[in-house]
Structure formats: structure tokens, C-alpha cells
């Protein structure tokens, strides 16, 4: 079991070419205005550029992870946290389907693993799934997408659209996404990468922030896709990710101070997950049918 203080490896795809030093798991360095980390700053001269040079920290997160509280996953929370620490992540967001208990638990015990955890839920709206990052109370499933986004924001949280457009995975259609706080532009379970590229183009064209998430339903896939969130160093006391203020992370994500990286799950992993989903839906359908027969409620 990996606990706080244990040595951790770097996340997948990470290297030291960004000019940042690793401190307590968080990369620190200097970012000049106009870089990816500060997309809205546009200095007009070299002197202004120098005056805008800001010490920064980069926090690496997997923002889309499932545990056994999801109907289609049997991975214990501790396995998820252990894997996240071993993968070199600074934090995660557990986003179980329409359930929040394990995510709230993760936010409490993650520091024991040297991690920062954002509570969240993958909410089933009438129009498709949405990730509610930073909520303390589960948004009610089954409501229109726009109403769900409003409720999420009322909790001081942000609404991210995962695997958009994909009907087979309950993706929200493009014409429904009028307002949100970000788009999942890299989902590790999009095995061909085609949908990820479509999502990235959509986010860029519409001006939405882009994030990445593994959508892991097994521990070994945690960290397969990573969102690097770029903050001022002062937001990460002593380079300790467990001391980060949640609000500053959420604000940075919504502002688009992110970069994404990672790989894709193997076709075998995807087939296994879809087969499990079919099995769960079949068993649920059988139980529902038997229940209707017993009660006489058969259409």
C-alpha cells in the first residue's frame, strides 16, 4: 500500500522537458505570460513579458475514475488510491455513476496516500452523462442537461461533459451542449482516438476548457489519461498536493489552464468493459421483468 511520504513514479507520458522541478510530487517552475499555462495573458513587449513572469506549479489529475459504487465496476476505493499514487498522480476525482459516497470517502482519505481528491459524480441526465466535479451532494439524475449544469454550479462545482456525442456511451449531443465548464477531450476508453479528436475540435471551436480522464473501471487503468492543471505556486503550499484549495483547482480547470496527455486503453480492455455492461443490463432487465411478473405490472 502506498502512503504519504512514499516515493512515487511519474505519471504516464511525463518527462522533465517542461523546465519544471518536481517538489513533493508537484512540478514547479516559471511560466511566462502567453504560455499554455496562462492563455489569456498577452504581453506587448519583452519588458512586460518579464513583469508577467510568474512562478507556477503543475498538478496532475485523473478526473474520471470509477469504484465499486458504480454499477459497472467492482474495484475497491483503496485499490484506486493505491494505483493513483503508484502512477505518480497528484490527485483524482472519483466519479461513480449517480453515486457519491465513495467519492466523498476518497476526499477524506486521499491524503493518507499523498493525494488530493475532488469529490464528484457522473450524473445521468436526460440528455447524457455529465461529470459534476466538486459537489458535496449528488445532483438528481434524469433531469435535462442544462438544469443539471445549473444545479452543479449552485454547489460551487463545475460541469464537464465526458465522452461527448457517443450515444453508445451516453454522450451528450453537440446541439445540447450550449453551456458547460469543460469538455473531456481525451478519454482513455475511446480506443481509436477518433472521438477524442472530435471532442477536442468541438472544445476549441466553442471555447470550452479541455480535460482528460481515464474513465477507469479497473485499478490498472487509473492514470492512463491525465489533466495537468497549471496554478500559481502559492496555490500549492510547499509543493504539497494534499494542501491545495479545491476551489482554486476548479477555477483553473474552468479557466482552461490545463493541458492533457496520456494513452488509450487496449481494445481488449474496452471489449471487456462493454461485455460487463451488457451483462449488468441483462441481469437488471431480467430482475425487472421478474418483478413485474410477480406484481402483475406487465404491459
TrEMBL record:
Q: Which GO terms describe its molecular function?
A: 5'-3' DNA exonuclease activity; 5'-3' RNA exonuclease activity
Q: Which NCBIfam families match?
A: CehA_McbA_metalo
Q: What is this protein called?
A: PHP domain protein
Which InterPro entries does UniProt cross-reference here?
PHP_dom, PHP_domain, Pol/His_phosphatase_N, Pol/histidinol_Pase-like
The organism named in the record is: Halopiger xanaduensis (strain DSM 18323 / JCM 14033 / SH-6)
- What are the residue boundaries of the Polymerase/histidinol phosphatase N-terminal domain, all occurrences included? 61-127
Q: Where is this region: Disordered?
A: 1-55
What SUPFAM superfamilies does this protein map onto? Answer: PHP domain-like
Polar residues biased stretches: 34-46
Top-level taxon of the source organism: Archaea
Q: Which Gene3D superfamilies match?
A: Metal-dependent hydrolases
